[in-house]
Design goal:
SH3 type barrels; mainly beta; seven-stranded mixed sheet; two-stranded antiparallel ribbon
Length: 168
């Protein structure tokens, strides 16, 4: 019985794959609806078969707009509640326009620390707490330290608004 869902999935992938699709120019007509079709049963995923579950797009996460000034000089926590550092600013990649917070970690009273980038789409704000989802101090320190480079990153000013995902 476990083979049937996999066989159906494989068939759907083969049919929809562009290189394996038929190249005839005849229009494809949908099959006529059955006069009396049985009630769809729930599959292993809990979705009823025949409901178009394959065509459902994933829900887009809701976001809120927040100014750069409201992010800077705030502490950022890791997923486990540990301290990651302080947000020094927000930059945007000149290549793909992706937005990052610049996190200063270590040092002495904010001096002599190492800066790292955390994608804004990987942080969540709950009340006054800023949390980097799926990030621990060890993971942050394993990334390449941030080096200010005007050709690669553009520093966003305090009045710029960025989209931050709403916590789930």
């Amino acid at each position: 019985m476990k083979i049937l869902p996999f066989a159906l999935l494989a068939a759907a992938l083969l049919i929809n794959h562009p290189s394996l699709a038929q190249t005839e120019s005849a229009p494809v007509r949908p099959a006529a609806p059955a006069a009396s079709s049985p009630k769809p049963e729930a599959g292993p995923s809990g979705l009823k078969s025949g409901t178009g579950a394959m065509a459902v797009a994933p829900a887009t996460p809701s976001t809120r707009q927040i100014t750069v000034a409201s992010l800077t000089e705030k502490e950022i926590k890791g997923q486990d509640g540990s301290d990651l550092g302080e947000i020094n600013g927000v930059v945007e990649s000149t290549a793909d326009k992706k937005t990052y917070v610049v996190v200063n970690r270590g040092g002495f009273f904010g001096f002599f620390g190492t800066e790292y980038l955390v994608p804004v789409d990987q942080i969540a704000i709950t009340g006054e707490e800023i949390v980097a989802k799926n990030m621990t101090p060890k993971q942050l320190e394993s990334t390449t330290p941030f080096v200010t480079d005007a050709a690669t990153y553009r520093l966003l000013d305090d009045t710029t608004r960025v989209s931050v995902p709403e916590p789930r």
